[in-house]
């Protein structure tokens, strides 16, 4: 009896397999038919003087869906592009943006990195066109995340564009994750000064929306990044600028920074390591910053002379 | 064993078995009205001492502190009264009494001293009872070190041993240092935990502040969508009612026409047989 049931199960699987293959073939046929028809409707000829986007767009969308289900990304990508064009022609930028994003995802599967960047940028522009800034920024962030391994410079551009979009729309609070991602990418690329600039920009955005915790953390992170880049003067200048703000000067992060600078002034590497290892503030920063802090001090540490104040 | 100890021991034994001593009872009866004032006073003092000892024992077993204080005060009062009687007893001890042996006469001062010691030894909640100066003499000091509070004698200050550490004080200091270090460790752990909590609380606060306007926006949009939906439903309802009423009216007319038609047909069908060839 059990053997019979098992045999029946196998048969059903086989049958299911056969059914799924047949189903797939059916989908491919449908998709190809839709694509052909839609291309025909959008091709100008002697009898057709205007492209019929109204009828072609749903066909393109159907074709794209079917191609995606049967895992034919190249054809699906083309179909989505055409569908997006159709929606733009019908003054529906929101749907067009969705199709462009789908095309971008498929382009990523095909490793066409330039196309990924283009598609996501176009999607973002379409979102902004219909007045939705947040989805526009999100599209840029998704695109940046998709290409950051292989095209980091483009990813950084997209991250900063997303931040700018949100800043212009007074939505700085939504940009904190973007700042973090951008600064981490800069650190990965060993561009420490740029990373520090992004962190300071993050602090400025946090100041605007009164997020004091993030602001102080961003400033301390910037100081640590400058110290890691072996530019003590930049770090000190950064600290002096930040300490002029009440919010930072009364915070625990300021005390931590003071201890760090004191250790640097004395020129004792052991003391610097001790300050960092015993600090209760540094473990709450971002993991990349903690990693940099644990490697301090970098380079030769010499005792720094405190500039004497001229009281004449 | 000294004479005083022997005498004390004998007194205890005699007291225990005095009910069997007929002579003493007879003598007590005589002495009460007799000439031996020493014996009389001695007996009275002994009885008072017994009463005081009984009170001090009650005070030691009592739990109520107020009662204990009262009893101790009474014991101290009795002790001072008894000590005041000792000089009188000493004078009477030296007086010659008739029919008294030389040994007994010689033993009387010792009896007085024993009695005075007994009075001193009654516990009154203040003095525990001295056992000689052997308690503080440790660490090979030549003189026993007594701890005095607010009683700095210049001689004590000049003594070289005054500022030296004893084993006890060293041990105490080490224990103090160890406990303080342990406390510091514990406080550091608490501080680290509190810093973490503060950081988490700050982040939660920021996140909530970030989410608040978003939720307000969602709230507004949902309200607007709900209002639109409500309007749409009302319009749909009106349209449906209108459609249905129109349709009903048409259907009613059609049905009436059909019924009239059928009725007319039946009437003509029924009426035609009556005009048949039977006429």
Blueprint of the fold:
The complex is a heterodimer of chains A (312) and B (279).
Chain A: H1 2-41, H2 53-69, H3 73-89, H4 93-109, H5 113-129, H6 133-147, H7 152-168, H8 176-188, H9 192-208, H10 212-228, H11 232-243, H12 246-249, H13 252-266, H14 269-278, H15 287-294
Helix pairs in contact in A: 1-2, 2-3, 3-4, 4-5, 4-6, 5-6, 6-7, 7-8, 8-9, 9-10, 10-11, 10-13, 13-14
Chain B: H1 3-16, H2 22-33, H3 37-61, H4 65-94, H5 102-121, H6 154-158, H7 167-271
Helix pairs in contact in B: 1-5, 3-4, 3-5, 4-5
Domain T-SNARE coiled-coil homology (chain B): 177-239
Pfam families (chain B): SNARE (PF05739)
Transmembrane segments (chain B): 249-270
Summed over residues and divided by their number, the pLDDT of chain B gives a mean of 81
Categorize the overall geometry of chain B.
elongated
Any low-confidence stretches of chain A, pLDDT <50, length ≥5?
A: none
- Quick one: biggest sheet of chain A? none
Subcellular location (chain A): Membrane
Pfam families (chain A): SNAP
Protein name (chain A): Gamma-soluble NSF attachment protein
Family (chain A): Belongs to the SNAP family.
Q: Can you put this structure into words, describing what you see?
A:
The complex is a heterodimer of chains A (312) and B (279). Chain A is mainly alpha-helical and 312 residues long. In chain A, helix 10 runs antiparallel to helix 11 (232-243). In chain A, 76% of the residues lie in helices and 0% in strands. The relative contact order of chain A is 0.05. Chain B has 279 residues and is an all-alpha fold. Chain B contains seven helices and no strands. Chain B is elongated and about 180 Å long. The A-B interface holds A 173-174, 209-214, 252, 280-281, 284 and B 191-192, 195-196, 199, 202-203, 205-206, 209-210.
Could you name the key traits of this structure?
heterodimer; A: 312 residues; mainly alpha; elongated; B: 279 residues; 7 helices; 76% helix; NSF_attach (chain A); protein transport (chain A); TPR-like_helical_dom_sf (chain A); transport (chain A); ER-Golgi transport (chain A)
